[in-house]
Structures are given as C-alpha cells and as structure tokens.
Amino acid sequence: MSKMNEQDFKRASVNLETAQIAWRELQRYFASGATVAVSDTLDLVEVAFQFSEDNAAQVAQWMQSGQLAPVSDEQALAWYEADALVWAVVARPYVLVQSQKVVSEKK
Predict the structure, then answer these.
(1) C-alpha 36: how far from its chain's center?
(2) Closest of 96, 86, 94, 92 to residue 24, by C-alpha
C-alpha cells in the first residue's frame, strides 16, 4: 500500500469511528479531563487523524489558535442542560468533541 493510500485508509477508519452521541453519555470522560473541544471551523476527522499520527506540531498550533481546548465547565454545562447531541471520536487518551453544526434553511 502506498503512503498516500495508507493515510486515506486511516482517515476513512477514523471517519467510521466518528458518531453523534448525547453529551450526557460523555460525562465521565469530561470529569476525568479527557474531553477536548474541536472548533466547528476544523474537520473533526482530520483532527483525530492528526492525533493518531502524533502530529504534535499541528495539534499545538490548533491549541494556540484556540481551535482545540479542553471542554470548559461552561460549555459542558450548556451541553448538559440542552441535552445536546455532539459529534465525538476517540483519539486516545482523549475524546474529541464537536458541536453539531446548525444548518439554517433558506426561506
């Protein structure tokens, strides 16, 4: 398998592991400090892929820009109170979490 195909395969695998889940189901991971919020400006699959590739430079850049950060108490409470569904994927030892994008309908 060529390098490009191997990376495509890994991205596809990460994509298959991504799912919508109720935030309430992730409470124990949040309590242990293992949840990371991913900005909706980023592709959740790409972020998880970079974690799996141990691309520390890219992850650090996203963190410095504020596009990645531990889920804040305020965000966790808002998701909890709204009984929100979020997109999530495991990137050991973290659970990457992203708000569902709201798509407005044109009238």
Answers:
(1) 7
(2) 86
Q: Is residue 52 part of a domain?
A: yes
SS3 41: coil
Examine residue 44 and state whether it is found in any structural domain, yes or no: yes
Residue 66 inside a domain? The answer is yes
Read off the pTM. 0.86
Identify the domain containing residue 36 by its residue range: 3-99
3-state secondary structure 27-69: HHHHHCCCEEEECCCCCHHHHHHHHHCCCHHHHHHHHHCCCEE
Total domain count, the chain: 1
Q: Contact, 36 vs 71, CB < 8 A?
A: yes
Q: Please, are residues 30 and 80 in contact by the beta-carbon 8 Å criterion?
A: no
Measure the CA–CA gap between 26 and 9, rounded to whole angstroms.
27
- What digits encode the pLDDT tens for the residues 37-89? 999 999 999 999 999 999 999 999 999 999 999 999 999 999 999 999 999 99
E strand or H helix at 77, and its extent?
helix 73-81
